[in-house]
Design goal:
- The complex is a heterodimer.
- Chain A has strands at residues 5-7, 10-13, 19-24, 31-38, 42-50, 53-56, 65-71, 74-79, 88-95, 103-104, 108-112.
- Chain A has no helices and eleven strands.
- In chain A, strands 2, 4, 5, 6, 9, 10 and 11 form a seven-stranded mixed beta sheet that branches. A four-stranded antiparallel beta sheet of chain A has the order 1-3-8-7, with no helix packed on it.
- In chain A, 38% of the residues are buried.
- By secondary structure, chain A is mainly beta.
- Chain B is mostly beta strands.
- Chain B is 0% helix and 56% strand.
- The chains are: A mainly beta, B mainly beta.
- The A-B interface holds A 4, 31, 33, 41-45, 48, 50, 55-56, 59, 91, 93, 95, 97-98, 100-107 and B 1-2, 31, 33, 35, 41-45, 48, 88, 92, 96-106.
């Protein structure tokens, strides 16, 4: 049963520390999305990749966030330096170009103290 | 940035009853999707309806779309305790091949046994 995996599942860190979240998309999928979910803002799209190329990262705070796909099996989202307001659940989703359904990972629950 | 609003924000019903959730959106769409999120989990795709469709069924789910009113509804018939979850609508803007989903705030459904 193919699934999107995310690591770590939970992360507690102190303000100012670097946080790296990883995502393994479903094998064969060529689109990857990063979302952030908070009670106040709901689900927000942070970044979007197609065939490993970043297509849209307009939802991402550029000064501290960066997203990359070093290869087709790994997507990373980094926050440096982290701030308490970054506390949220970060979801990765993957899909196939021209297929609208997205498959979500279980999320990384981040708490920045 | 949220595309849509969902109504009601929370819904509590007895097992066996029907649950109806509504979603309104602001801009033109290529398609609209509904996702379910169980507590502490990632989102799971339920059903997709295209802008040229008015109604779609999948098992106990029925989705309607009224593009003139920019609204959609999700009906879950004969609800079960396992249907307890949050339900989100998400829209894809034309031309549709970006895969970018814009989510509503969600409706939290509680089904009491």
């Amino acid at each position: 049963d193919a699934r999107v995996t995310q690591t770590p599942r939970h992360k507690v860190t102190e303000m100012g520390q670097e946080v790296t979240m990883r995502c393994q998309p479903i094998l064969g999928h060529n689109t990857v999305f990063w979302y952030r979910q908070t009670m106040m803002q709901g689900l927000e799209l942070l970044a979007y990749f197609r065939n490993r190329a970043p297509l849209d990262d307009s939802g991402m705070p550029k000064d501290r966030f960066s997203a990359e796909m070093p290869d087709a099996t790994l997507a990373t989202l980094k926050i440096q330096p982290s701030e308490p307001r970054d506390s949220a659940v970060y979801f990765c989703a993957s899909g196939l170009e021209f297929k609208e359904t997205q498959y979500f990972g279980p999320g990384t629950r981040l708490l920045v103290l | 940035s949220q595309q849509g609003e969902e109504d009601p924000q929370a819904l509590s019903i007895q097992e066996g009853e029907n649950a109806t959730m509504n979603c309104s959106y602001k801009t033109s769409i290529n398609n609209l999707q509904w996702y379910r999120q169980n507590s502490g989990r990632g989102l799971v795709h339920l059903i997709l309806i295209r802008s040229n469709e008015r109604e779609k069924h999948s098992g106990r789910l029925r989705v309607t779309l009224d593009t003139s009113k920019k609204s959609s509804s999700l009906l879950i018939t004969a609800s079960r305790a396992a249907d307890t979850a949050s339900y989100f609508c998400a829209t894809v803007a034309p031309p549709g091949n970006t895969g970018k989903l814009i989510f509503g705030q969600g409706t939290t459904l509680q089904v009491k046994p």
